[in-house]
Structure formats: C-alpha cells, structure tokens
Design a protein that fits this description.
The protein is mainly alpha-helical and 369 residues long. The protein contains twelve helices and four strands; from the N terminus they run H-H-H-H-E-E-H-H-H-E-E-H-H-H-H-H. Helix content is 60%, strand content 4%. The relative contact order is 0.07.
Length: 369
Amino acid sequence: MASQFYTHVAGSTSKKQAGLWLGLAITTIALGWFHFQTVPDDLPVSDDWVSCMLQDVVTASTNQVPQTSMNEASSTPAAEVELLEPLEAQCISLHEEFLSLQKIAPSAGNEVLPLAAKVLQDLRQFDEQYAMTLSYRQPAYKPHNTSDQNTTSNGMSQKTLADGKLKRTETRICFLQLVTAARRLYASLPQARGNANGALGCAAGMLHAIEENAVRELELEESANALSCLGVHWSVVSLSDSSSAPLFGSGPTPRESPASVWVQDYWGTLAPADMVHAEDLLSRSVQGDDHKHRALSLIHARRLQEHAKVFESHEQHTAAAQRYQLMAKLAKKGGSAPLSAYALSHLSHSLLLQGSQAEALVAAKARWT
C-alpha cells in the first residue's frame, strides 16, 4: 500500500507568506505544463523523464476484419481454418521473439527495455487481432441423418469440422504460451530508468485483461496439450510475486478459491491454491501412455521441480519430498534418466532433512538403478 503524506499549515502563517507560496505553486505548475507540452513524443526514456513505454492500441475497425468472417455464406469450418492459420503463424513468430529476448535479457541491462516494450506492445496488438478473429463463430453443423455420421447437413465432412476445432485449440494454446513468455520476460527486466516503477512507466494492470482472456479462452479446451499449457501458466503465476509484476495487476485467480488461500494438495497437505490448481491441470494432462503424454510428463516434472525448490527454501521438506518423488516417476515415464536421477537425489536430501533416514537411503540407491 502506498504511503500517505499529509501537509500541515500553521495557523500563524501570514497572508504575505501564503501569497508567496501560492505564487511559487502557480509558477511550478506552469513550468511543468510547458515542459509537458514541449517534450516530443519520441523522446528516449531517461532517468529524468519517465513515460509509458507502451503506446495506446487502436482497436481494429470493421473495415480491417477479414471479409471471410463478415460473409455468412462462407461461414464454414474451412473458412475458419483459413482465418486462424495466419493468426497462429503470427502468434508463433511473436512467441519466438519473446523466447529470444528472454535469453539475452539478464545480461543486456537497461538496453533491453525498448526491445521488451516493443514485443509487449506487439502482444497487445495481437490480442486485438485475436479477439477480432475469434469473435467469428461457425454455426453448429449436425449430421444429415443418424446413418451418415461422416457428412453434415451442409455437406461438410467430420474431418473438416475436426480440423476447424483443432486449429482453434492450437491458436488458443499459442496465445496463452505467448502470455506465459511475456510474464517470464517481464520478470527478468531491470527495474531502472524506463522501468523504475516496475511497469515500464505505465499504469499497473495494463496487461491484466489480456492474461485473463487468454486463460479463460483455453479453459474451454480439454485436450492434453491445453491442460498442460494451462498448468504451466498457473505454475508460473504461483511462483511469481504479484507486487513485482504490476503490468499484470493481481494476476488471474483460480475459480475454486483465491490464489492467496492455502488449500489441500494431491497429498493432503497444504499449498497455495494457484499452485495446487497448476499441479491438478498438469496431472490431468499426462493421463495416457503414448508418445504425446510421455513428452508432457517431462513438462510436468520440471514444474514440480520449481515447486519443490520453493518449499525447500521455506524448509517445508515434506512438501518438497512429495514433489521430488512424483517428479522422479514422471521423468522416468518421459524417458529422461538425468532428470529422474536429479529428482531422486533431491528427494533423498529432503527425506534426510525431515528425519527419514531409511527412506533417504532407499531414494539415494534408486538413483543408481
């Protein structure tokens, strides 16, 4: 909470002194107004002049809406795919920019701020394009009769319908991955110069609606990839300090309970609600034994690794051990022997710290089998 300041004026102040102070105040305001009016819009951010590094986003007009989405005659799954393909390609390209910038951010210093501002501004522009495109909704296509399940009443094949649904899911996944990358990049930026207020000089919560929209959109999906993507994002949110990410405001909140509340986790112990929500989503995403689910198991394992580290740092070794144990199983399922060995090593350490010496020895031996 911001500090509050109060000014006390002594009752004995003379009219002359009051007039002097009033004159100085008017002069100061006038000089400030003149400075504001004469500073060019493209002035580089400096220590002496801090303004929002993200420009206003102009909402696209109806003239910019792709004609396919404006024509009900072409409201088909094929047309939907045609609309979503360039949107997904744009999302993938922007995601790669975020990842590349995140790699150099820790060592780039203040010079990274304009680059970060650009990709965050691109994210805001993409959100506008995404909302415009996803507002297009295809009509519900039903089979012509129960004996023909492969063709719709409009002659559309079930495959075409499936392609449209898949493309929508993929675009939603990419959008949330984009927001997750933005959170990670933002957390690595130095809080200096144009980012002295931690929000690139902008108002707090500027990206809150974008994050909320991306999360709620993907919650409509039930695929394993969608659940994994949601789980990763909630995991990143649970590990971040909301006060250090003012651009995202207070962040999203699990529907079940406030993020600040501690609830029972999978093991019956207590953990932050958003972390438990993340672990539940990640657990649901790996319910299978094919190649896709084995790959998602490694994603789940790595997020548990981050959660366990937090519990370790607060000397909650039982909670950490539970996560390292599951992490080892998931890493083995995913075929990563090094990641499994890492989990077992830390599991042994956590068990030892909580006084379970026999179990710690078993875990240590399992690392070499």
